[in-house]
Automatic annotation (TrEMBL):
Keywords of the record: DNA-binding, Transcription, Transcription regulation
Tree of life domain: Bacteria
Domain named HTH tetR-type: residues: 6-66
Keyword match Transcription regulation: yes
Protein's UniProt name: TetR/AcrR family transcriptional regulator
Organism: Kitasatospora nipponensis
DNA-binding region: 29-48
One matching Pfam family: TetR_N
PANTHER family: HTH-TYPE TRANSCRIPTIONAL REGULATOR YJDC (PTHR47506:SF1), TRANSCRIPTIONAL REGULATORY PROTEIN (PTHR47506)
Amino acid sequence: MAGRKQFDVEEALGQSMRLFWQRGYADTSLDLLGAATGLGRGSLYGTFGGKDALFRQCLDRYASTYGDRYDRVLAAHPDEPARAIEAFFDAVLDRIADPSVPDGCLLTQSAGQAATLNPESRAHVQVLLGRQLERVRAALSSPHVDGGDLDDLALYVVAVTQSLAVLSRAGHSPEQLRAVARIACTTVEDTLARPRPGVTPA
């Protein structure tokens, strides 16, 4: 049929996401994207709107794929925030250890290259990182801990998560990464066990 795309858009998006993940935004050229997807520049622009628009679509795909996993593991432990965060770190480490995907985290890498992104893409990275913070903060909800402490704790968990991604790309072993996660889980548990002033734990 005339005008019908002769390629799998989702597959091309997946290949592009992987390339941005492997190389970062700055080192991913249109020529490399074309080689990875088998598409010419005209098809890339016509389908995705150019490199920056394609990059943001790849960020969305990444955030959706892994965000859904994180939502499931966090939701699997209602009223057990410490256990939920432990499960969250397990999911993060499983993703890092997965040999079928690049090392690290596309969002972490993109945040580190913020200076190379245009304003729209830079803002998009911040929005997606904000969603991760919101998801963790929701899982940490506890009536026995001060809300400000929970905000700080959620930011701490996200910071450790991003650090794990950086350490994995730097070549640290899975055992080293799990040691970091264990210490983080202990910190979370200890903070949650510390009652809010004037509140007696149930």
